[in-house]
Each structure stands twice: as structure tokens, then as C-alpha cells.
């Protein structure tokens, strides 16, 4: 009987040890799962804000800025490069928590999204094929096709003046195909955000800017209206910190051609 009793006490002690170990392990797992990891959508080709370099790495002003802000504020995220239109849908449907994609802050979009403080001020320019000698002003676009990229300031501006100048707009999901359309002569010109077309031309795309730059809206980080206020606040705080310590300007200087 004594041996049985001792054996029972031993088994109970072992069971308690395993129980404590299991509780300890469960606590650690819970702690890790409590860490919020945000899903953030972005565009695929909007150089110099987001694009793939020669090594297949996702880089650009938006990408580096997001990484620096996340590091400054101590949050984790998963980046989803899905294209601009898809990114809008990702956030509005709740599949992504936010988006950063050279997205202009407009009154119309404020009905659906909450925006961060502006992180870049853009502008719009017209560009034509480098060999084009006939288009020198908007008046020369009459009866012609003009290429634009969905969701950009360039597209918004083109739509606002096309009736006045009598041209037709042709929309594209990305900048690369829009450029090819103009190079091929299918469209006589395009309207694009200034830093984007400036980078393309500096990188060897055979286009040239024509006319003056039009004022555009600022870019902002966006979340679905009424949601992820904490993430938005962290972005704003991180952005302010990066501007104060010089890291923000370093990121711009890395990508914007002068």
C-alpha cells in the first residue's frame, strides 16, 4: 500500500509539472498572438513610390517610408502589392487594414477613407513621345486620344479638362502600359503625376514633358473610414519623427531625380 501511495504522489507531482509547463507555453503563445500585425496594400508600378528593382525587391518612397515608420513606432505589417484599384477594394472590404500607394487626398475619397497627414505634395504634367513635334499645348489634343492611369491625379485632371479641349481619355491600370501606349502612337499624350513621369524620363523612357505643371493634391496613407485609428496615429507620429530627424528627406533624396 505504501508503495502504491508513493507512486500516486509521484504521478501527481509529474502531472503538476506538465500542467505548469503547458500553462507557461500557452501564455507565451497568447502573448505572441496578441501582437497586432497590419496588412497594408500598395500599388505595383508607380515609380519612384513603389516598384520592383533589378533584384526583384519591392522598393520606393512609399515602401521605405512605411518601413521606417513601422520601425520608429514598433508595429509589424504585411505588404500586399496588388495594384492601385485592387488596393482601394482591399481596404474598403476589410481585406487590408490600410494602403500606401501614392494616393491623393481628395474630398471624394474622404467619404470612404481616413487619411494620414500628407507625406508628399504632387503635381500633374502632360507628356508626349520624345519624337512628337506637334503637341505643344492642351489645344493640340483636340480630337485625339490621351492616356491616363486609373486613380491618379493625372487622370483626375485629364477628366476635368477633356471636354474643354475636345480629347478622349484612355485608361490603364499601370504606368508602364500607359507609357507604351503613347510610345506606340495609340495615344498622342498622357497626364501623369510629376515625380513619376520625371523618374521615367530620367530612367530612359522616350517621353518628354510639355507645358506647365498643374498643382495636384497631397499623398496620404489611408485606412477605411472609422477604422484603424491607432495605426493612423502611429503613422502620423512616425512621419513627424522622421521629418524631425532627417530620415524622411534621405528617403526622398534616394528616389527623386534632380
Structure description:
The chain has 258 residues and is an alpha/beta fold. The chain has two domains: 37-119 and 220-255, D-Maltodextrin-Binding Protein, domain 2; 122-217, D-Maltodextrin-Binding Protein, domain 2, CATH 3.40.190.10. It contains eight helices and twelve strands. The protein has helices at 2-33, 61-73, 84-93, 153-165, 175-183, 194-202, 229-245, 247-255, and strands at 37-42, 51-52, 58-59, 76-81, 98-99, 113-115, 120-129, 145-149, 168-172, 189-193, 207-219, 222-224. The strands form three sheets. A five-stranded mixed beta sheet has the order 4-1-5-12-6. The protein has a five-stranded mixed beta sheet with strand order 9-8-10-7-11, with helices on both faces. Strands 2-3 form a two-stranded antiparallel ribbon. A hairpin with a 5-residue loop joins β2 (51-52) and β3 (58-59). α2 packs across α7 (229-245) and α2 (61-73) packs antiparallel against α8 (247-255). The longest helix has 32 residues, at 2-33. It is globular, with a radius of gyration of 26 Å. The N and C termini lie far apart (91 Å). The model is unreliable at 1-33 (pLDDT under 50).
